[in-house]
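Before a computer can learn anything about folding, someone has to put a protein's shape into writing. The three-dimensional part falls to structure tokens, numbers that each stand for a local backbone shape. The protein below has been through that process, and both of its lines are reproduced in full.
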Amino acid sequence: MSQSKYFTRQKLRECTFTTKSVKKRQGEHVESGSANLKTHVAPKRKKQMVDNNHSSYEQILKVKTHGKSTVQESSTTKTKEPSIWKEQLANIKEMRRHRDAPVDSMGCDVISDKQASPETYRYQVLLSLMLSSQTKDEVTSAALKRLQVHGCTMENILKTSDNALGEIICPVGFWRKKVQYIKKTTAILQKEYNGDIPDTVTKLCALPGIGPKMAHLIMKCAWNEITGIGVDTHVHRISNRLGWVQTKHPEETRKALEDWLPRECWQDINHLLVGFGQQICQPVTPKCKGCLNKLTCPFAQSLPSDKVN
């Protein structure tokens, strides 16, 4: 036997203990015999990402309790209203007064065909938002225009092969996955909603490829109903930079904003911040020098002075 194997077995023997005891309790005998010492490690709670639109956004903890799964939200603490948000929002409105950002001419409600039937218009709003995920507005707009030329109705989309549909919407982000989402969602709409789209956030989020952000924007643009704030990467980034929220994910940002932002502001906040993020508060090279909020923005104040003044 090799020396290493000998020491390994020797250590195993040392970790084994034998105890024999007989205890008498209430007329019953309990005997514990030779046994190996085993350490029980409780299984860790798994953190699972729930994201219908595959954007990384909504985190929950699934806890197994007696064979049943219960859902716990990551936080129940309400966000306090920032002290100077009204001034900052007024400044953003001033900087956005010309309404000349890409979202102003290529947003989902603008590029969808308003001359089509109401059902087809709503369907195109839904498709444009599906295409827009992780895709620039210019690319989304061009893809939807190609779909409209092809024939952007539910009947025609279902007749179109996956390869042909992919060629039409490419190069939107994750276009192969979106082909599957479009086909599956369209089939559901045709079968379960009589050729229209759902009129509630819950039902919209049940569709393949649709998450909370999209659902709230669809309700606003397609049904003219404000059900919540649509939070994309721009809204999430700017809200954190201004100190309005302290969150890691867009869905957390939505809930935090809705805690304190007056409901009358919900309708325009997405459009305002998206355009502001496209033109001034950009992700990599923000134009802080020309921003009216540079003196009150925590992010701007954290930068070297030559980047702000």
About this structure: The beta strands are 16-17, 21-25, 28-32, 35-36, 47-50, 58-65, 68-73. Confidence is low (pLDDT under 50) at residues 2-75. The longest strand covers residues 58-65.
